[in-house]
């Protein structure tokens, strides 16, 4: 039987938390599959490079590699990652299959809802420890601002807006905004949401990792906006998508889809 491996191709970061998240995710994916080896590679910034990951997998005796672009959207960086991975695979003479990126998936919708619920429960706990009392706000009373990275790529924009449209049914209102490269930005996104006079505004960062964007860029933009607008309602930021078995399940579904296409092609 052919020995199979999976490589998650991530954009890349030198943040130790990001690398740890990728290691933990690979362990979850391995639990979900029968592959001999599951690892990750980084397109840029630091190691392991794509070449490193391929050679590492070959060292485990892997004969066929499934390349998973670990990106939320089919944007420009994802396309570069796929192109480079295919080039390396061909140079090494490795059999390979390329999957779709995470893209749109019901498991991602469930994960976002879980992160929003965690934030809502955190707010409930904070209120129970304060003079505001133990008031609990249901989903349909919450307003949510979904924060994306932003992209100049039409496909990436389409997928992000599709995610937002799918989530709208669960909350009083849901808006979208972007860290960069698209509009509205975080400042305007918060302004628009506050004009709707929410009881509770939950800011949901639609980001895979706890990297520089999460730790600095997004927080700085949010702090500036809140300092300017001084909202009378409660505002809380949810956790990023992070490491979760639901993401591992999406990855494995992408792997199965790619395998089915490969089988039909002969």
The N- to C-terminal Cα distance equals 17 Å
CATH architectural type of the largest domain: 3-Layer(aba) Sandwich
CATH class category name of the largest domain: Alpha Beta
Average the pLDDT over all residues and give the rounded result.
Answer: 93
Main beta sheet:
4 strands, parallel
Radius of gyration: 20 Å
Supply the number of helical segments.
Answer: 8
Instruction: Output the structural class.
Output: alpha/beta
Low-confidence stretches: none
CATH topology group of the largest domain:
Rossmann fold
Question: What does this molecule look like?
Answer:
- The protein has 266 residues and is an alpha/beta fold.
- It has two domains: 4-103 and 243-264, Rossmann fold; 106-237, Rossmann fold (3-Layer(aba) Sandwich).
- The protein has eight helices and eight strands, in the order E-H-E-H-E-H-E-H-E-H-E-H-E-H-E-H.
- It has helices at 16-32, 50-59, 76-92, 106-128, 154-167, 186-194, 212-229, 245-264, and strands at residues 4-10, 37-42, 64-69, 95-98, 143-148, 173-178, 200-205, 234-237.
- The strands form two sheets. A four-stranded parallel β-sheet has the order 2-1-3-4, sandwiched between helices.
- Helix 3 (76-92) links the parallel strand 3 and strand 4.
- The mean pLDDT is 93.
List keywords for this structure.
alpha/beta; Rossmann fold; 2 domains; 4-stranded parallel β-sheet; 17% strand
Q: What's the quick description here?
A:
This protein has 2 domains: 4-103 and 243-264, 3-Layer(aba) Sandwich (Rossmann fold), CATH 3.40.50.1400; 106-237, 3-Layer(aba) Sandwich (Rossmann fold), CATH 3.40.50.1400. 48% of the residues lie in helices and 17% in strands. The chain has helices at residues 16-32, 50-59, 76-92, 106-128, 154-167, 186-194, 212-229, 245-264; strands at 4-10, 37-42, 64-69, 95-98, 143-148, 173-178, 200-205, 234-237.
């Amino acid at each position: 039987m052919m020995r199979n491996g999976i490589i998650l191709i991530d954009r890349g970061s030198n943040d130790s938390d990001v690398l740890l998240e990728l290691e933990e995710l690979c362990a979850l994916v391995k639990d979900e599959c029968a592959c001999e080896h599951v690892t990750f590679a980084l397109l840029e910034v630091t190691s392991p490079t794509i070449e490193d990951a391929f050679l590492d997998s070959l060292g485990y005796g892997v004969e066929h590699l499934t390349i998973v672009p670990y990106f939320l959207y089919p944007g420009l960086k994802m396309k570069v990652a796929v192109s480079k991975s295919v080039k390396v695979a061909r140079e090494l003479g490795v059999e390979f299959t390329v999957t779709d990126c995470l893209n749109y998936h019901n498991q991602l919708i469930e994960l976002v809802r879980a992160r929003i619920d965690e934030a809502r429960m955190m707010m409930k706990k904070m209120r129970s420890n304060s003079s505001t009392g133990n008031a609990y706000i249901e989903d349909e009373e919450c307003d949510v601002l979904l924060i994306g990275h932003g992209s100049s790529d039409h496909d990436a924009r389409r997928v992000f807006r599709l995610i937002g449209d799918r989530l709208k049914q669960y909350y009083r209102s849901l808006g979208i905004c972007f860290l960069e490269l698209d509009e509205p930005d975080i400042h305007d996104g918060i302004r628009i949401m506050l004009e709707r006079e929410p009881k509770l505004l939950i800011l949901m960062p639609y980001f895979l990792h706890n990297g520089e964007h999460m730790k600095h860029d997004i927080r700085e933009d949010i702090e500036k906006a809140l300092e300017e607008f001084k909202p009378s309602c409660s505002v809380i930021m949810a956790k990023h998508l992070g490491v979760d078995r639901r993401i591992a399940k999406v990855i494995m579904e992408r792997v199965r889809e790619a395998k089915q296409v490969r089988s039909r092609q002969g």
